[in-house]
What we know:
Blueprint: H1 26-46, H2 53-72, H3 84-96, H4 101-128, H5 133-148, H6 151-156, H7 163-183, H8 186-202, H9 210-223, H10 230-260, E1 284-287, E2 290-293, H11 298-303, H12 316-329, H13 333-351, H14 365-377, H15 379-382, H16 387-392, H17 394-437, E3 443-446, H18 450-456, E4 460-463, H19 469-475, E5 481-485, H20 487-493, H21 498-510, E6 512-518, E7 521-526
Parallel strand pairs: 3-4, 3-5
Antiparallel strand pairs: 1-2, 5-7, 6-7
Helix pairs in contact: 1-4, 1-5, 2-3, 2-18, 3-4, 4-5, 4-7, 5-14, 7-8, 8-10, 9-13, 12-14
Amino acid sequence: MSSAVPVSSEFNIGMRVHSPARANWFAPLAVFALALALRIAAVMYWNFRGLYGLDAYSYYDYSMALREALLRGQPLPHFFWPLAYPALVVLASFFVGQNPFSGQVVSLVSGSLLVLFTFLLAEEIARLGNFDERRGRWVAWIAALWLTFSAQLIQYSTVIMADALGLALAVGSAWMLTRYARTRAARFLYLSAAILAFAFLARIQMALLIFPWTAFTLSIWKSDQGDATLTSKLRAGVIAGVSGVLIVVPYLVWAWREAQLGLSSYAADPGFAQWNPLNLFRRDFITPDGHLQFPYPSGIYYAVAAVRGGALTPFLIPSFVLGVIELWRRRAVGVLIFLLGWCAAIYFFIGGLPWQNLRFAFPLYPPLAIVGAIGLSAIGSSIQMPRVLSRLGTLRAVMLMLLLILATQLTLGYLELDKFMTTTRNYSALAEWLTRELPPDATLVTFTISEILQHETKLHVREIYFETPETLTELMHGVHNYLLIDVSSVETQWVGRAPALDYEFLRDRVGLEEIGSRLTYTLFQIKPCC
């Protein structure tokens, strides 16, 4: 019996499947508008300003410092992370003002563009897989909606951080590369390389995508049935590579010069990441952030990161398996190389890091959602459907499954977002409590939340991480000196290192008097030492 699944002769990416003459932009713009509306609704519902944790405050503070430096014609101030996101925040600040919304608007637009680019990428993937236009549109809608309602992506589309921007640019680069695969127009290859370079300048992690991008490009060339010569292909590849290098080199030179002055950055000090493949099997690490212990090995943690309820839900697992099977049946080898290579490059990198953080797994979401969408669209032909569903027809069955997924995602996602927003409110309440408890001229020594308190209070805040017993002794004159610290965390995570040693010095040599506690933090008054 002949298969009903159309296949190509070897690599389906060798076939130039052309899109309709008139492009339909209504659908991608509709998902962009839906994603943006949902993210704005989250900001308004929880009254969230985008500032949370050390990184968000650091990004915002640096963006404002960069703005002042540019306006005054001064050298760029030092920053540990790349500069693409702060540069856009500076640009936004000229339109919305010098306030946190200038950073939040960049994240909101980036998170919505991520959904739009995923829709367009999924359409191109479907064309390369020889899906008919109607099914290709279903694949695009399912993948885009999966990301639209992901609570994790909503959260980081509202926080003042570079994750949403970096991922949006990476998916935009992938879209351009698949357009090159379909049309062989070299301009799309050049655009893909340039956009990936800018993704690197937003999140250095995106540099890893060079490997699956290159493998996909080589598979395109190998299967090419057109008239392009090897020389023309190599010329296109060299131009693309050079364009990307020219974009990133100025930043790398600047970071290297900063490193010569003793100012570290992630790009100039890749050893900071402490990557090791054996970390996939470990859950106990010694890092620049102290001694970290996790419940599960990193390999397991990141293997399930995308299927959490607040991410893409466990429904992704069977859908993804069906998607891989469907692409294999269609002999879409190049597409599999591209999407699975994308997942592998990111997974093995983040799994080898000595940290566990859900946002590190964000680059996995688009390829997983696209493959899962392909699997979900194939549900009618890939599995034996129950009689009640077979009566409804394949289309309705897929719609019911999609509604079930989105309902689950919305419910679990709301709970996760509400938990996150509650935590942000608790930190604001902590700042208000300190303002009431402490005199206006108080000096507050604290750990990990100094950036937050510097913004939310008028207290003189000192970060204990940068202190020593000697500097603390010089500081402790008068009676209005206080310590706010998570005692349990310091005593376990930072044993034998500065924060713990400083705390022990103040406790045992100077003297601490407990005042009260909020969240996991305890407030002490430091006894005068002179």
